[in-house]
Amino acid sequence: MSQPSPPEHFPRKVLIAFGSLIGLSLLLVTLAVLMGYNPSQVAPSPPVVSRDLRFSDGPDGTTLVKDATDDRTVAVLPSGIEGFVRGILRAVSRERRNRHLPDHTPFRLARLADGRLTLTDLGTKRTIELTSFGPTNESSFAAFLAGSAPIAPPATASAQAGAGR
Known about the structure:
Elements: H1 12-34, E1 47-57, E2 63-67, E3 73-77, H2 83-98, E4 107-112, E5 117-121, E6 127-129, H3 135-142, H4 157-163
Antiparallel strand pairs: 1-2, 1-4, 2-3, 4-5, 5-6
């Protein structure tokens, strides 16, 4: 009869090294999250053009898009079309209601220097990256920027020094 072979043991030092590596990894990830690191965050890009807008329901089921600075009508969305715009507005309105914020607070639509289009709810400070919904949906909002003046880039120190001469 053959004798059973003794069980082989994994080297203790290797187990300790792997355990330490896993523990260090968990510690670093925890510290990064606690300090606000989010790998999905895109570096902020300055706006090239922006417009503050208010959206309201018309008496006939339309949605009125108005410039918040002068109350001029930018667009009238007929009932039954522009479902993407209406869907975004419903979601943001629900969040405003939940936070008991006024409906008349404007939204800021901005085209950033890197080409992204964003809609920021100035009441909740929530920003929606419209570019991530595809070019067709993005163009629904991009039309509201037509006629907006570009934002001047901030003056550099050398340009300010030259202006003082």
